[in-house]
Write a structure and sequence with these properties.
alpha/beta; Rossmann fold; seven-stranded parallel sheet; two-stranded parallel ribbon; globular
């Protein structure tokens, strides 16, 4: 009898990759839990013959009472992420924390023996600009001004105290091919920040390979990142993407970027998860090459012509720069040394 896997967040960046990997193996019975919408139906249509869709809103306890079946593994990737997560903290708490709590409580009734795999975030470690080497055993700070990070910390506590076997992967910055939008949030991260990326395919592989590694992963948290070949600084990483897209140099006015109070760093114990799930296939060089191949030459050409106007529009979204120009003492304290 095939192992039965329940997947949430299947229409997200990592979730899509996880679903493709699970379906390609033909080893599992796959159920996808998602809200019913035209967008969701369209996204999942290519997998219609290989999955069972369960249309439930995780944040609605009444709907979750309709969840039935016995699941061997639950891969829980559904979440509200930044920038929306910090723009709408109530929604973030409702989906990320309450939604997970509701799901766990239902699983404790219908599938008490299932293995619960959860995607947390490097954001839980807070500002590590001065101490960039991160270990899973580091103390997690409170996050009064970061609704997303706090939702992940609170949710981890719920999971660890549940009756289920669990594992938690704290995901680094997940960077794929043409999948990151340039929003005002980009200016909240200090340019000097060390960072270690992972690509969506590799991230998903940690979860899909982890399905068969319950004994090694059970009741442990792990840091997930691409390893030494995926390390860079934020300034260098932006430079790569600006060049690829035809935007030229990262030449913004002083105080456009924050100088503190963001997250990211290098996972010094990231090999622990790699040694169990063998998920790493890509490097920063691969990321660069794949994105270069994905950008049409004509797009890069026109972007290069309009780069000054584009960067003007971009810096107008910088909250740190606005705070500095407006002498907003509260925000200046938040963003600058």
């Amino acid at each position: 009898m095939k192992m039965h896997i329940l997947l949430t967040g299947a229409t997200g960046t990592v979730g899509k990759e996880a679903l493709m990997q699970l379906c390609s193996q033909s080893l599992y019975q796959i159920s996808v839990l998602c809200r019913d919408s035209a967008k969701t139906r369209k996204c999942l249509q290519p997998f219609a013959s290989k999955i069972n869709r369960i249309h439930i809103d995780l944040s609605n306890p009444a709907q979750l009472k309709n969840l039935e079946g016995e699941f061997d593994v639950v891969i829980h990737l559904a979440a509200v992420i930044p920038p929306l997560a910090n723009e709408q903290p109530k929604l973030t708490h409702k989906v990320n924390f309450s939604g997970t709590k509701n799901l766990i409580e239902r699983l404790e009734i219908i599938s008490p023996d299932c293995f619960f795999m959860f995607s947390s975030s490097i954001a839980v470690y807070g500002d590590r600009l001065l101490t960039p080497n991160i270990s899973v055993n580091d103390v997690l700070p409170n996050h009064e001004e970061d609704a997303y990070a706090q939702s992940k910390i609170d949710t981890e506590t719920i999971i660890m105290n549940s009756k289920l076997d669990w594992t938690i992967f704290r995901l680094t910055a997940i960077m794929g091919v043409k999948n990151h939008k340039m929003t005002g949030l980009m200016f909240h991260m200090p340019l000097a920040t060390p960072m270690e990326i992972a690509m969506p395919e590799d991230t998903a592989r940690a979860f899909t390979n982890g399905v068969e590694k319950r004994a090694e992963l059970k009741n442990k948290a792990f840091n997930l990142a691409g390893g030494p070949s995926c390390r860079t600084t934020y300034e260098e990483f932006l430079g790569i993407n600006f060049r690829i897209n035809g935007l030229g140099a990262v030449d913004f006015p002083p105080k456009t970027f924050a100088e503190k109070n963001f997250h990211c760093g290098n996972y010094i114990d990231g090999d622990d998860l790699e040694n169990i799930t063998h998920f790493r296939k890509h490097s920063l060089e691969d990321y660069t090459r794949l994105n270069e191949e994905a950008i049409p030459g004509i797009q890069k050409f026109f972007t290069s012509i309009l780069k000054s106007a584009i960067k003007y529009f971009m810096r107008r979204q910088s909250l740190p720069l606005k705070a500095y120009k407006n002498n907003d003492k509260e925000l200046i304290e938040r963003f600058f040394n």
